[in-house]
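In this section we walk through a basic example: taking a raw amino acid sequence and producing a predicted 3D structure, encoded as discrete structure tokens. The instruction is simple. Fold the sequence below.
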Amino acid sequence: MKPSVPAAPAWAKTDLARVPHLKVPPPGPQSNKIHARCTKHFKGLSEQVKLFPVVFDSGHGCTLVDADGNTYIDFSSGIYVTTLGHCHPKVTEAVQKYAARCMNCHDFTTEIKTRLVEKLAEVLPGDLNGFQLYDCGTAAVEAGIRVCRAATKKHEMLSAFYDYHGKTYGAVSLGHIRSHVYGAVRAPGAHMLPRPDVYRPWWTKPDGSIDTDKYIEFYAAYMEKATVGAVAAFCLEPIQGWGGSVMPPDDFFPKLRRLCDEKKVLLMADEVLTSWGRTGKWLCLEHWDVVPDVVTLGKGFGNGFPVTCVAVREPYKESFETISASSSYGGNPMACAAALASTEVIEEEHLLARAEHLGAIALKHMKRMMERHPIVGDVRAKGCLMGIELVKDRSTKEPFNEAGKLVYQKAFRKGLAWIPAGHILRMSPPIVMDDETLLKGLDLIEEAIGETAKELGHTR
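The resulting token sequence is shown next.
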């Protein structure tokens, strides 16, 4: 008998007769007024805010309300953060409790921290049972790099094209960010390599399908010929977020795991974006039965509270002792309470299965969308991590950046809060969303795609 799909929690269900609800065309007068005041002083905004400078006032479940009283369906989750929806009652209560009890005591042991690390050791796969806590994804990545170097006594790091790992020097050196402010060179020992993209492969088999073995062969040759023989780890995102929800072929990570073992190189997974239910597993790598040596957790880990984690396998956990691992805010009682509550909610509300269910129905819906709109070149979903790639021509796969910006803005004006990435539309709805709200959000995107294609002269 096929197992029943867990229902969306009642507290987060959306009344689609009232949502989305636009009182004024967004961004409205209050949004414009407040945004103008703020940006006199506040600089360095993300592209999504620059394209649609709405000012949000509140959020509940799977909806957001702006300063003008407009209500939106949330397909962003605060950039993959509020995985359990806005203001989940249990998470809110946990943070409030410790905000009134003990906000910070550096890295001294607390009972709530003890309960959290015990829970992490319970739910994570394999022997991932050594932990350290931080307050942002970048800090966790930097600590993970240091652990890899300490554990192996080697210094070189491999990473992948279009990965994103953070905005400090070490993390940037493993990612695709390019800016003169980080210096004229990457950090010493940082190497970037191509990774398999099913839609845009570098190497293919005679039948046109992606040839994963060629990537693995190239990695082995690169380690032999282009490094100094001191590779500590291969660090990469299981699914690229900033790169556009790029999914690997199913055989890639098992083969990469074997290569790392053969070369005595650690496998470090940056799961700040992909972990804690986002794809329907605690770790995204569990979809391929792969256990990393080092893994970073974040974003949805605390459902909006700034808490991240580095987890390592049993043989490497003593390496934390040699890297000055503690931090001012990491593991504070409020953070631990938020992370533990979020973990318990995922278990209690059966949200891993719910996320996988939402991904399945979204992919089915997006494939039909692709049949109807020639500018949709590719669609993908793994749980509640989804993407739509827009192209000028399916045969050439030329990116359609202008269309991406217009679709983003048009759907936002219809009441959908979400994420742009050039020609790739990214979606990360909360995993507590009900089916009807998910399909309504996808319908708003399809309306925007149809209008954009017509406006730009790219209809059938």
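Looking at the output, two observations stand out. The longest strand covers residues 128-134. The mean pLDDT is 96. In the next section we compare this with other chains.
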